């Protein structure tokens, strides 16, 4: 028997923070690829430290629903799952290369395949593009459009920006959009000045966040000038300095995210059958960029 455990941050303050995790877990359950699919959270129940103890399968694939490699994926999650002999160096990653490590979980007789975060997987590139298609309603969106990939950014964790830059460059190499720019909330170039950094008349803005919350539904729309008060909402597209802004909201809410989770588990050796093809059919996705 094999189980999939999707671990995410969750929130005590935002009831909708966990919803993408449950949605993607439901999608994967529907494929029948795993005998069990469970969700675990840092700030909600079931907690990281308990979730593996709720599965019966001897083989467990753990996929972090996080954007970047860093404190949570390298320290908190392995510690709470009680993964024996874990060391971040086992990933042999420079910030965007984490794949998977097979370890034993203390206190339970289970083999755990601990995967890198979804946010640095190559398949995430396609989810960002799919998000642009979803918000514009155009499966061919690109020509005449700019695309801004927005991250939090922080001087405390350089890997936060690495994931943004990685996918921005991959999309730029597709030569699909007129221009592609990485923007940040807490670093330069800042999303506040999106119209200063991009010249396209139409700009799709995709935040590389897992769930819609304080940053994506309050800070970013107000910072960009889409609205003076997030509580009154905003138009999509909205006019900012004579340019149309197509604000997509958090990339993690896109249905195709289930594909990335499956890709992570498959890379770690999970037998998923035709689950990827089925998810892509349901969500209108395509094979991962570069395949």
TrEMBL record:
Protein name per UniProt: Sirohydrochlorin cobaltochelatase
Residue ranges the record marks as coiled coil: none
SUPFAM superfamilies xrefs: Chelatase
Protein's UniProt keywords contain Transmembrane helix: no
Pfam families with a match to the protein in the record: CbiX
NCBIfam families in the record: PRK02395.1-1 (NF002670), PRK02395.1-3 (NF002671)
GO biological process: cobalamin biosynthetic process
Molecular function per GO: lyase activity; metal ion binding
Keyword Thylakoid: no
Keywords assigned: Cobalamin biosynthesis, Cobalt, Lyase, Metal-binding
